[in-house]
Amino acid sequence: QVQLVESGGGLVEPGGSLRLSCAASAASGMIFRSYTMGWYRQAPGKQRELVAAITGGGSTNYADSVKGRCTISRDNAKNTIYLEMNSLKPEDTAVYYCNVYLFGLNYWGQGTQVTVSS
User: Sign of the CA dihedral 100, 38, 7, 92?
Assistant: First the structure.
């Protein structure tokens, strides 16, 4: 069984910053370093969308809406990925989910709420 646990969300003013974390674990003790992991978000009334992803080799890709403002990274020793978000805008408000695709299945965390508001 794979578990993804997100943390770091919260309420921030426009222009502020947040750092999200996602710790991955599995009953088998597997290591996630070889797998692509990503951050998605879902705003009320909207479809879930990719924010950023990082491969096992460290290659990254970002949604156009966050390019230049967000940085995804990973610490393979800790089975953890991060999303550094800067210059946050009200339209970044959403529940942010961590994802990993393994053996034909999508695994999701429980989500962490990010609210950007003054």
Answer: negative
